[in-house]
Amino acid sequence: MIIRKLYEFENAHIVRLCGSKRCRTSIHGHSYRCEILLSSNFLDEAGMVYDFGYMKLGIRELIDSFDHAVTIYARDDTSYIADLKKHSARWVQIPLNPSAEQFCRIFFVLIDRLLSLTQMQNGEREVKLHSVIVHETATGYAQCFREDAYNAQMGEIALEEIEFSPAVREEWRQPELWQKLLRGEKIIYPKDC
Questions:
Q1: For the chain, what is the mean pLDDT?
Q2: Reduced to 3 states, what is the DSSP secondary structure of residue 149?
Q3: Which of 40, 75, 174, 190 has its CA at a distance of 20 to 30 angstroms from the CA of residue 82?
Q4: pLDDT in tens, 120-131
Q5: Inter-residue contact 106 to 157 (CB < 8 Å)
Q6: Percent with pLDDT over 90 in the chain
Q7: What are the two backbone dihedrals, phi and then psi, of residue 71, each rounded to the nearest 5 degrees?
Q8: Cβ-Cβ contacts under 8 Å for 73 (sequence gap 6 or more)
C-alpha cells in the first residue's frame, strides 16, 4: 500500500547551465509542491502504513527548511554565494545544481535516512520511501525513485555537504535532528505525536 503526503514550500534559485537564459542567469522563485510517497505491505496498530502525525515531526521539518529560502549550488561563483549568504537569512547550500530533479533526489536521500534511523512506535513495519515528486510549476514536476536517488551518474549526494543557514537551524523544533541524521543515530519520536 502507498500513502502520500503533500507539502508546499517557496524557494528561490538559479539553475546554472540550463537551456533557459532566464533560469540560468537570474534568481527566481517557485511555489513548490512536494509529494512524499511511503509504502509498506503491513499496517500498524491503528491500521495505517505510517501515521501522518509522525511525518510532521521529521519529514515536514526537513522540507520546511527550504521554505522562504534561497537554495545555493555549492560550486557556483564564490562571490555570488557570499552575497546570497550576506543578504538572505534563510539559505540552504547543496552539492548539486538546484533543479527540480536534484531537489527530488536530495529530499529522497534525507527522508530515506530519516526513516532508516526512526524507531517505530506503533507497530509500523517495513515502511519504505516509495518516491518523491517535486512540482516546480503547475505543469512540470520531477519524480525520484530509489535508483535515481543513489545514482552516481546523476551526482553523488553526501549529507555532510548540505549546509543550512543559522536562521533555518534556529527554527527547527528538533535542533538535534540534523546531527542525528549525519551521525546515523536512532531517532525516537514520542508515542503520542
A1: 95
A2: helix
A3: 174
A4: 989 999 999 999
A5: yes
A6: 89
A7: -100, 130
A8: 13, 14, 16, 93, 94, 96, 97, 98
In the structure, what pLDDT confidence band is assigned to residue 85 with cuts at 50, 70 and 90? very high
For residues 20 and 88, give the distance between their C-alpha atoms in angstroms, rounded to a whole number.
25
The amino acid at 35: E
pLDDT at 25: 87
DSSP H/E element including 178: helix 177-183
- Neighbouring CB atoms inside 10 A of 29's CB total 12
- Output the nine-digit C-alpha cell for 127: 515502511
End-to-end CA distance of the chain: 22
* Tally: H helices and E strands in the chain: 8, 9
Dihedral sign for Cα 152, 63, 110, 43, please: negative
Spell 106-119 as b/e; 16+ CB within 10 A means b. bbbbbbbbbbebbe
